[in-house]
Amino acid sequence: MEANRLEHFRKLLLEQLGQHNENVRDDQAAALDSVDDSVKDSVDMSLQDVNQELTLRHGERESQAVAEIDEALRRIDEGTYGQCERCGKPIDERRLEAMPTARYDAQCQAEIEASQGTGNAPTL
Questions:
Q1: Domains and their CATH numbers in the chain
Q2: What is the DSSP-derived secondary structure letter of residue 83?
Q3: Model's pTM, two decimal places?
Q4: CB atoms closer than 10 angstroms to residue 121
Q5: Distance, CA of 4 to CA of 104 (rounded, Å)
Q6: pLDDT truncated to tens, each residue of the chain (124 aa)?
């Protein structure tokens, strides 16, 4: 991949990294703020638990996105960004524009998902 395209993807990934890091901080703060010791009603306590669980799950997804972006930035530094980790073929740049953290080309991704039983779910 050309150096200017790699720099484009690096900037794109760094922008996403900043946004996801901010989301992780916000989710952590929201989870801590959602704890209300004054709640006495069991329905309110259940609702509080559900809200806290949803906030924590969202935070986990954001943390996973940060890890994926870090991995993509590492691949840029190593010179392997844009190559399928499974077959070694180039990943289409349209796929990378849509999903800059993509590790596999579309064909390999479809095969991986089919082998995992997720072939009916839409993918990028």
A1: 3-81 (1.20.120.910), 84-124 (no CATH)
A2: B
A3: 0.74
A4: 8
A5: 21
A6: 899 999 999 999 999 999 988 887 776 676 666 666 665 677 777 777 787 788 778 878 888 999 999 999 999 999 999 999 999 999 999 999 999 999 999 999 999 999 987 555 555 5
